[in-house]
Write a structure and sequence with these properties.
single chain, alpha+beta
């Protein structure tokens, strides 16, 4: 990934938060010389330095990978079009062009498949607890009949990506001057909508000197 210094995110907590907020990744790997991708929600295990997930046993992913080479999980964060009409510079010189702001995290690592039922059960328990935590009546594995859960466990296989390196990018108008950034924030707020509001908040939260 092209990583100019001003867009290169290296803060671990920020990266972890981005993965947590947008856990659905495109997991890419080479299979017989061809690039293959699957979209999988991951749980980031910072202590183990790994991404954990599960796939259907019928999915060939857990068999079709080279454990000696890296796989890549791509997480997409916020993104939004930025019109040059929001820049103060447009009114001053006109020397501006459109762009696209976005966040992305590339997690590289080596895959392994896990068929151990206890490991898979623990993953599903952790994954469910994590995603259900903010709900008024969180669902848990124990809410379903035990024999039903046992059957479901047999239908899935665990996968783990042992992380070798992470690249993260947050392109949030850091290359514009303060007046232009303020214009982008105001423009996004005026445009409205959840995506625009979140992007405006992310830009406003940056250090103006970044």
């Amino acid at each position: 990934m092209y990583l100019p210094d001003r867009f290169h995110e290296q803060d671990f907590e920020t990266i972890a938060a981005l993965i947590e907020a947008r856990p659905l990744a495109a997991l890419t790997r080479l299979v017989n010389g061809a690039i293959v991708a699957d979209h999988i929600p991951f749980l980031f295990d910072a202590e183990a330095n790994a991404l954990r997930a599960h796939v259907a046993r019928a999915n060939p992913l857990w068999r079709d990978f080279d454990s000696t080479s890296e796989a890549l999980a791509i997480f997409a964060g916020l993104d939004h079009y930025v019109t040059p009409s929001w820049y103060a510079t447009k009114r001053e010189t006109g020397k501006v062009v459109p762009t696209w702001n976005y966040e992305a995290v590339h997690v590289y690592g080596r895959l392994r498949a896990i068929e151990d039922a206890n490991w898979i059960r623990a993953l599903l328990r952790d994954l469910t607890a994590h995603r259900e935590a903010t709900r008024p009546a969180p669902w848990a594995l124990a809410d379903a009949p035990a024999d039903f859960i046992d059957a479901q466990l047999k239908a899935v296989v665990g996968i783990e990506l042992s992380i070798t390196r992470i690249e993260a990018k947050r392109k949030l108008s850091q290359n514009r001057n303060a007046a232009d950034r303020a214009g982008v924030v105001d423009g996004l707020k005026a445009e409205g909508g959840e995506a625009a509001e979140r992007m405006a908040k992310a830009i406003a939260a940056l250090d103006p000197k970044a």
